[in-house]
Design brief:
The protein is α/β, with parallel strands linked by helices.
Length: 368
């Protein structure tokens, strides 16, 4: 089944970039956002200007720009969900009544447990249509909106990708091969994509251990280069060790943070410590810190990164004291219970499963 018409759900940085590039590639692209205010600059401009390191540059006209979810996904073969992972449940609830057989839903990104939660919500809502839900480990387009209706792509990412369940991954990849060429690599299953969430390793320690500096300077320092000191790096290494232990228990390839960072072409350090890798990261060197702890580096990367990892660790009988400590510190600092608000095994639909049942579930689908 070839792709001709695509719905991009979300009009943030990534949504702008994905919608613009796919339109310039010749696809009919609909862009949806629940906020008319977010779409207004696109409507006024008549489209989106794309610049930077993407495959194409120029002004992209879109097929539809809408706040109506039914209109956005009607008749499309591919639905690309480009929103913070905290909005996955909302998007699943919005699309559920209007899905058609054979539609492919691509969570770009799924981060940790995105496809699991999205699939669970569709099941809870009684969706019977034969759709495929898939995810990438991170976002395909590293980008920033630089002015109204203008987006700059800094980097096209090469990412692990899997469907939920994994038996659908090959079909999904076949359909996306021309849409995202040379960007998506087959993972074993969505556990592998989820546990290769690189942001969950680097952002929470950097934010929480620099809390005073962030609040005093309103983010007036270089987050990765100045904020990741040797002691912060040791905390990244510690939570990474816990992540790798969970992956080994699940039978997954345990790729260390530094190696993932190197493979993403973010550093020239392939082995060593997180501190060494981040100090050598030219793409990240001048990136400024967020100006508040209420930022996706905490809200998303703790609630939808560390929480699902630590929650799955309970199934694996693996202790995660450093992850747990960061979750607790984030909850206190931001007055938010991330264990309650975040993505737990209950929300992913895998509570009370054994390791064997969990692996069978992500490979084959819902247990009978």
């Amino acid at each position: 089944m070839s792709v001709e018409t695509i719905a991009v759900l979300g009009a943030g940085h990534g949504g702008h970039a994905v919608a613009a590039e796919l339109s310039l590639a010749g696809y009919k692209v609909n862009i949806y956002n629940r906020s008319q205010e977010r779409l207004a600059p696109i409507i006024r401009a008549g489209g989106i200007e794309l610049v930077g390191e993407s495959r194409r540059q120029g002004f992209a006209k879109l097929n539809k720009v809408t706040t109506n979810i039914r209109e956005a996904i009607d008749g499309v073969e591919l639905i690309v969900v480009v929103v913070p992972t905290s909005a996955h449940r909302f998007m699943a609830e919005q699309v559920a009544p209007y899905l058609k057989d054979r539609q492919l839903i691509f969570l770009n990104p799924g981060h940790t447990g995105g496809a699991l939660e999205f699939s669970r919500v569709l099941k809870e809502l009684g969706v019977k249509k034969k759709v495929i839900v898939a995810e990438s480990m991170s976002i395909t387009h590293g980008s920033r909106i630089v002015s109204p209706a203008k987006v700059k792509v800094m980097r096209l990412m090469k990412l692990l990708f899997a469907a939920m369940p994994a038996r659908d991954t090959d079909e999904a990849l076949d359909r996306l091969e021309d849409v995202f060429p040379n960007q998506l690599n087959k993972a074993i299953n969505v556990l592998e994509t989820g546990f290769n969430n690189i942001n969950a390793m680097e952002h929470p320690p950097g934010m929480l251990m620099n809390a005073g500096w962030i609040e005093h300077t309103w983010g007036g320092f270089r987050f990765y280069y100045e904020g990741i000191t040797p002691s912060v790096g040791r905390v990244i290494d510690a939570i990474d060790a816990e992540r790798l232990k969970i992956m080994r228990t699940l039978g997954l390839k345990p790729t260390p943070f530094v190696e993932m960072f190197y493979d993403a072409e973010m550093t020239n350090v392939k082995e060593g410590t997180a501190y060494e890798a981040l100090q050598a990261s030219e793409p990240n060197k001048d990136v400024k810190s967020p100006d508040t702890l209420h930022n996706r580096y905490v809200d998303e990367d703790v609630g939808y990164g560390l929480v699902p990892m630590a929650s799955i660790a309970r199934i694996c009988d693996v202790e995660t004291p450093v992850m747990d400590s960061l979750i607790m510190l984030a909850s206190v600092a931001n007055e938010t219970d991330y264990w309650r608000e975040g993505r737990t095994v209950e929300k992913m639909g895998i509570a009370r499963m054994s390791i064997r049942e969990l692996i069978r579930f992500v490979d084959e689908g819902y247990m009978k």
